[in-house]
Design goal:
heterodimer; A: mainly alpha; ABC transporter involved in vitamin B12 uptake, BtuC; about 0% strand; B: mainly alpha; 2 domains; globular
């Protein structure tokens, strides 16, 4: 991998199989992109040519040993070619409905709770504690967030109560996993059931059968001056919720903290080899406690985004509806890495956003489309296209000697 | 150990301390199998009661209302008191209907657990069984009852086995963690069910195209009712199928080679492989058998009393997840699962439709069930915690006895 010949005087990185595979993936996207607005190529030849190029790039990379990215490029090429062909067959009026510029905004809206949940799950699992309780922690954040915003009179209070509620359940999970050395999956499932009961019970108790009163203070949108009136970018990113931006910032932030700082090294050491970490003087218990509590808080932020974020102050029982599990899937699909998880969250957000617009073609197909994240994750853990590998000590309680 | 042995030195000298200690340890270990679940349930109900009391309701009347709603009063009825017996009998029959499902979804978690696998996919396997049973029950309208019902049950169990078998196969061949793959399979089944029963879906009813619901099972595929009225959702013979499944579970696990091998893999996969057991094969078999139990649950529900299922029902259904709590509380044994299923069946029905709204608000009580369910799973996960409390109590008693003996 290191010593590559430079055949035509091009720099080594440009002809490295990895970059070729990346170009292939981009081409695969472009194959589809060419057939939808704003380009709307009507000739089937355009997506076919670009798609075949993408597949070729992927094959080239695979035969030179870059299997994971290469197969990704091949898959992107095949998908892009197929979807692009479908798009050229469809009427351009329908295409205009499905692919408006605000699709970008909608993808970000659907991806944000997943981003928070996935990064939260990653922090916990990197420290060696499996967190299948993300769904419950998210639900806690959703309810107590809107409760705090309603009673406290400000969305800031709502965020704080959500963080507290999520952190509390994180603490519970941490106590069970670290101190009592319980089975972490059992503990996580218990968190999910408990959160469902607690939020439902207190919602009924505090609000009866009425809903959350209208006009609850909710997280404001950020209007970017200068951009919000531009042609394509305006509706896409000109007027997004504050938490969406916070979520986007958290991706590089978590990457830097986890992979570039001593703190992150300690967290990852506890997840890979806790005994070794203990030997060099890292307090494994403290690190795991902190990581799981932070994980609960992040998941709760994702939940708060649902209740006091883009919908503006509302709650229904079991509001998260499995988003915590999609976040878990995004984390696994992204191979326990921040940018991977974010990419997966965007992909899953995209599939949900598309599913909401597909009914112009067929409502039953739109429903089926919602299962896509889970199918992709199943394929990813099965290792057909590059295997997802968890941290080595993920899920194993640590006993001090 | 030495801490526990110390107080025994103070007991009257005619008792041999060593024997006393060994016997007591043995009893404690054997009793741990019974004490932990009982204490778990008691603690969970206590904690639930505290929440009820803290929010300004009377926990005693609430629990009494749930008890009555579950129809448990029928068990203590005097034969000539015909005043309330009718309602109690009806409620109990409904509790047993729920118990039927919970026994099977509980076994679906318990069986792979004994093989060292955690099956969270009971909900998905249950739904797959339900969907297949609905398809069989709606089609083949000209068939007589016995083969029609048997075909529906068999096909549903097979479908559940295949669905869970995917997770077992992935675990055996690629090492994909069964928890992750069963969670994914759950959601694929949930969205798949919504697609199949939804508008324009292949299994949507043909009568009303606007309603996102399945077709109705034809009468020849209904499982006959033996207690109560068939019109009013009486208790059907599926109940005995579930009881039989408990026996089959016990027999397979404790009296067959397969069961021996499954338990061996559960204790220690490496040692089992060293002893010549094909561990990967056991993983697939254990998951497939587990899925068959869950699929059977779906079939009994569909052909026993549901007959029809809508998109909203698919979204709301939670009974497969409840199987996790049932199996864990029942310590993954046949008898334990049966008893836990009865407890949860009563709790589930007694807090929802069985509950008198004037006694306690069912919308609160339904969430109380989720809460108690969560607490039970939480406490079972930490049996060290429960045993610690139990031991603390015992130590306290011993200390008191020692003090009494000393004075």
């Amino acid at each position: 991998m290191t010593n590559h010949a430079q055949p035509y005087g091009a720099p080594a990185w440009a002809l490295h199989p990895k970059s070729i595979a990346l170009v292939g993936s981009v081409l695969g996207l472009a194959a589809f992109w060419s057939a939808i607005p704003p380009f709307t190529a009507r000739s089937p030849l355009v997506p076919i040519v670009i798609g075949v190029l993408a597949i070729a790039a992927g094959l080239w990379a695979v035969t030179r040993g870059t299997r994971r990215l290469g197969f990704g490029a091949i898959a992107a090429g095949v998908l892009g070619l197929g979807l692009g062909l479908l798009a050229t067959r469809s009427s351009s009026a329908n295409l205009q409905v499905v692919f408006r510029a605000d699709l970008v905004a909608q993808v970000l809206v659907f991806a944000t709770p997943l981003t928070f949940g996935a990064i939260g799950g990653m922090v916990s699992e990197r420290s060696g504690v499996v967190n299948v309780g993300l769904e419950g922690m998210m639900l806690m954040g959703a309810f107590w967030g809107v409760y705090g915003a309603d009673k406290g009179g400000s969305w800031v209070v709502g965020i704080l109560t959500a963080l507290f509620a999520g952190g509390l359940f994180g603490l519970l999970h941490a106590y069970w996993s670290v101190h009592l050395r319980a089975n972490q999956i059992i503990s996580g499932m218990a968190i999910n059931f408990l959160a469902l009961g607690v939020t439902g019970y207190f919602f009924e108790q505090l609000y009866g059968n009425q809903n959350i009163p209208a006009g609850v203070s909710s997280i404001p949108n950020v209007k970017i001056p200068g951009i919000d009136h531009m042609a394509f970018i305006g509706p896409a990113i000109g007027d997004l919720n504050l938490l969406i931006w916070v979520g986007i910032v958290f991706v590089p932030l978590s990457y830097v903290v986890l992979f570039k700082t001593p703190v992150g090294l300690r967290v990852r050491a506890c997840g890979e080899h806790p005994r070794a970490a203990d030997t060099v003087g890292i307090n494994v218990y403290a690190v795991r406690y902190a990581a799981v509590v932070v994980s609960g808080m992040l998941a709760a932020l994702g939940g708060a985004f649902l209740s006091i974020g883009f919908l503006g102050g509302s709650f229904t029982e079991n509001m998260t509806e499995g988003r915590g599990f999609i976040a878990l899937a995004a984390m696994i699909f992204g191979n326990w890495r921040p940018f991977g998880a974010w990419g997966a969250a965007l992909l899953f957000g995209f599939s949900t956003a598309i599913a909401y617009r597909l009914p112009v073609y067929s409502s039953s197909a739109a429903t089926l489309f919602q299962a896509l994240p889970y199918v992709l994750t199943l394929i990813a853990v099965a290792g057909v296209i590059g295997r997802s590998v968890p941290p080595a000590a993920d899920g194993q309680p640590y006993v001090k000697q | 150990m030495s801490e526990q042995a110390a107080p025994t030195g103070n007991v009257p000298p005619e008792q041999e301390p060593s024997t006393d200690f060994v016997v007591r340890l043995g009893i404690a270990q054997r009793a741990g199998g019974l004490i932990v679940p009982i204490m778990t349930a008691v603690l969970a109900f206590l904690a639930g009661g505290i929440v009820v009391a803290a929010t300004g309701h009377n926990p005693w009347t609430a629990y009494k209302g749930i008890w009555a709603g579950a129809g448990f009063n029928w068990l203590f009825h005097i034969p000539w008191d015909t005043n309330t017996i009718h309602l109690d009998a009806f409620n109990l029959s409904q509790t047993l209907l729920t118990t039927t499902t919970l026994i099977l979804t509980g076994l679906a978690v318990a069986f792979p657990f004994r093989c060292g696998l955690f099956n969270i996919g009971g909900q998905g396997q249950y739904l797959v069984g339900l969907i297949v049973a609905n398809w069989v029950g709606v089609s083949f309208a000209s068939w007589p009852t016995a083969p029609h019902v048997l075909l529906g049950i068999g096909a549903a169990a097979l479908a559940g086995a295949v669905w869970a078998g995917i997770a077992g196969f992935l675990k055996a061949t690629t090492g994909a963690h069964e928890v992750i793959s069963t969670i994914m399979l759950n959601w694929i089944a949930i969205w798949g069910g919504q697609y199949l029963f939804g508008q324009g879906g292949p299994l949507q009813n043909t009568v009303n195209p606007a309603a996102p619901e399945s077709g109705t099972v034809v009468p020849s595929a209904h499982i006959p009712v033996f207690w109560g009225s068939p019109v009013l959702q009486g208790l059907d013979y599926g109940f005995f199928v579930a009881i039989a499944a408990l026996v089959v579970f016990w027999l397979v696990l404790n009296r067959t080679t397969l069961g021996y091998e499954v338990r061996a893999v559960g204790f220690n996969p490496e040692a089992a492989a060293y002893g010549g057991i094909d561990v990967r094969r056991k993983y697939i078999q254990a998951m497939a058998i587990s899925g068959a139990f869950a699929g059977l649950a779906g079939a009994l529900d569909m052909l026993g009393y549901l007959f029809q299922f809508g998109v909203l029902d698919v979204q709301a259904s939670q009974i497969g997840f409840l199987g996790i709590a049932v199996a864990l509380l029942g310590r993954n044994t046949a008898i334990g699962t049966g008893i836990a299923a009865f407890l949860f069946g009563g709790l589930l029905y007694g807090t929802t439709r069985g509950l008198n709204p004037n006694v306690f608000d069912p919308s609160l009580a339904g969430n109380l069930t989720s809460m108690i369910q969560g607490l039970i799973v939480l406490f079972v996960g930490a049996d060290i915690f429960i045993l610690y409390i139990w031991n603390a109590r015992r130590k306290l008693g011993l200390r008191r006895r020692a003090q009494a003996a000393a004075t």
